[in-house]
Every structure is written in C-alpha cells, then in structure tokens.
Amino acid sequence: MYVKYCGCQTEEDYLLLSSSRADMIGFVFADSKRKVSPEEVSSWVRSHEKRKQIAGVFQDSPIEEMVAAAIRVPLDIIQCHGNESVNTIATLKKQTKKLIYKAIPYSEAISEQIERYGKYADAIIVDSLSKGQFGGTGTSFSWERVPEIMSFAKKENIPCFIAGGITPENIHNLLRCNPHGIDLSGGIESDGKKCKDRIEKLERMMLDVSSNRT
C-alpha cells in the first residue's frame, strides 16, 4: 500500500516526513491554509537529501504555472485537485513527463469519473466533498464503498488512493477495505503542525494490521 503525507508547510515538516514511512510528501500550491510557494519548497528539497517522491497539489491552476513549479521544485508528481479536464491531464503529462495524479470528489458517479480520468492519469485520489469544499475538510466519505472503488480502479489498471478524514484512530477501519494507497494531512497534525507522535501512532497501526494479516 502506498502512503502519501500531504500539506507539508515548513522545512521542519519536510525533515520529519522525510524520516517517516511515507512513499510521497505532498506540498499544497493551491489556495489553502496549508499553502506554500514553489520557492520555499525548492529551498527545503534542495537543502537536504531527497528520500521521498515529491508531489505538488494544484487546483485549477494554469498549465504554465504547474509546469514552472514542476521544474523549479523539482516535482515527481503533479496532483490536480480541481475541475481539470482530461485534456489538461494529457497536456501536463506530455509537457512535463511527470506522474500526474487526479483527485476526484466522492459521489455516486465515482465509477464514471474513474473510467474518465483513468485513461490519462497515473493515479486517482478519491477525496471527500463536505459543505461544498473538496479536500482538506478532515471528513471522510463512506469507506464501505472502498472495495468497490478499488475494483473500478483495477478495471482501469490505475492505482487509487483514499483521502479525507484519515487518522491514527480510524486507520484500521480503512485498511480492512484494502485501498491501494492512503493520502492524509490533518490526521497527522497537532496544533496545525505535522506531529511525530501521531505519525508514529499511525504507522504502528498500519504495521499491526499488516502483521495480523500474515
């Protein structure tokens, strides 16, 4: 299972997440309380040994802006977290040669959305939609649908991450549904900062569930 920790806001956060079990570290370049600039991230990444894949999260940004950020940071993954079209996904992939992830808000039409974007993106992230806000809400959708969602993604031969409201306290419920990957931010924070204790608690829970399966 892939693990992505998102919403890295400081160099201190970056160093902490670099020493974690995550496969990817995400930085939010879209309007958000966790927004950072490509200049800041470039400084942090280039000042230390790069141990993880780096993802940049954008929301309906101009293609030129995403391409420039991908070069400056440099990014391994461009995550589109808005209403980007399949043409935008295809163009980004062609221009940057980077992995392109597409976040999709959970709805009853999730299978159609996975089919639509699965032919162009390198991975899908299914996130929650709460009070009209897509992502970053700290709320989850019904994880009972996760096995079905994974089946849709498998049919399209594309990895699928689950995001939204994941915490060390409830991760065991999600892991029972066998997601391809998880993507979380607020669940590993304390007082708005990435928290070593919460990260370690989450990772212990993941190891416990994995050990119980073997």
Structure characterization notes:
This protein is of the alpha/beta class and 214 residues long. It has a single domain, classed as Alpha-Beta Barrel (TIM Barrel). 37% of the residues lie in helices and 22% in strands. The protein is built from 8 helices and 12 strands. It has helices at residues 11-18, 38-46, 63-72, 86-96, 110-118, 146-155, 171-175, 196-213, and strands at residues 2-5, 24-28, 53-58, 77-80, 99-105, 123-127, 129-130, 133-134, 160-163, 181-184, 189-190, 193-194. Strands 1-2-3-4-5-6-9-10 form an 8-stranded parallel beta barrel, surrounded by 5 helices. It has a two-stranded antiparallel sheet with strand order 7-8. Helix 3 packs parallel to helix 4. The mean pLDDT is 93.
Summarize the structure.
This protein is α/β, with parallel strands linked by helices and 214 residues long. The chain contains eight helices and twelve strands. The chain has an eight-stranded parallel barrel with strand order 1-2-3-4-5-6-9-10, surrounded by five helices. A two-stranded antiparallel sheet has the order 7-8. A two-stranded antiparallel sheet has the order 11-12.
Question: Could you name the key traits of this structure?
Answer:
8-stranded parallel beta barrel, 37% helix, alpha/beta, single chain, TIM Barrel, globular, 214 residues, 8 helices
Per-chain topology:
Elements: E1 2-5, H1 11-18, E2 24-28, H2 38-46, E3 53-58, H3 63-72, E4 77-80, H4 86-96, E5 99-105, H5 110-118, E6 123-127, E7 129-130, E8 133-134, H6 146-155, E9 160-163, H7 171-175, E10 181-184, E11 189-190, E12 193-194, H8 196-213
Parallel strand pairs: 1-2, 1-10, 2-3, 3-4, 4-5, 5-6, 6-9, 9-10
Antiparallel strand pairs: 7-8, 11-12
Helix pairs in contact: 3-4
